[in-house]
DNA sequence: CGGCCTTTGAAGATC
DNA sequence: GATCTTCAAAGGCCG
């Protein structure tokens, strides 16, 4: 995967983008290939105990910090097999027969007319998909979907709605197909900046990186090895987040069969095109859409809405933001890190995960960036009118505006 | 019981 | 365009 190796001029992030924030001490935590969570934990703990101390525990080369093979690779191995199988099923139409993600209303069907698919080779540039869209989704977003020629899916969005579901399940995670043409120039991965030490914890960290090239190519192999970060409804995991009705999906094209409640979830408050409000978040299959949070669980405060609007507001499902690459990575790796150490405190776990994230190679991170990009894309397709702002605390927003206004008044 | 902690990234808001 | 803020997940911890 030469394009990901960070060679000169590669799109993933030129070296000149890798702003060095390395501290005077240049203390980088050594992350060897078999680095354990225990070790990470120790580092975290020790650094928490004494922030300034032990700033020079170790340092190592970039190569060491970005090992080609990682202890986590077994996860990819397992998932790669799964995706290979999924791909095979797609190619022989198996997806229509037995979707791996029955609860997911959207499918990207491989374009079987694509000659490049027939030989089994899956060149990224050759991969195209026939996207299935909601039959009831007559929305701007879907219009964008229709235009598969659009080189920049990013333009449609980064507005993605997700509906939340049960615990620990993200709705958009069942993404398993990847189309190179959807590599969005608008959704560049940003990362891989040299680590710096967190002044507070002493743990190496990276400042919010500048974005890499908007184009982060992914080889077929990399795509195939993308581990499903959440694995919701992953058959082999044997943990269906949602019960699947006996007999499974009878509709030959489950992706096209959206019931009223689902369509309303997709549209409800966010799209003028939407249909009726959802009585509940159940898919046709009886599977609630995971991205939608029941209003009972979370209600968004509405600022200046009329009483009637309030009423509607109360019924609005909380559509969560799509997970970014790191979040997807965390979801996938958290359990493993927790298993490797006895620690369960998320704050500490997240520190470890953050360090591991930085230790990932570009290729490995690219998997998650691509997955996240797909999630955003799907999110925008499912909830065309949704905006991240919808989830902002209305109170905070108004307070903020008020503060700004008062400041201006003073001036 | 609700908010905090802690991470990175995306998106919106603001300057 | 740069910068700041919020939110996404997670679960222990604390007031």
Automatic annotation (TrEMBL):
Keyword DNA-binding: yes
Main location: nucleus
Skewed-composition ranges (Gly residues): 1-11
Biased composition (Low complexity): 46-60
Biological process according to GO: canonical Wnt signaling pathway; cell proliferation in dorsal spinal cord; endothelial cell fate specification; generation of neurons; heart development; midbrain development; positive regulation of cell population proliferation; rostrocaudal neural tube patterning
Compartments it resides in: Nucleus
Segments forming domain HMG box: 319-387
Family designation: Belongs to the TCF/LEF family.
The protein's name: Transcription factor 7 like 1a
Source organism: Neogobius melanostomus
Lineage: Eukaryota, Metazoa, Chordata, Craniata, Vertebrata
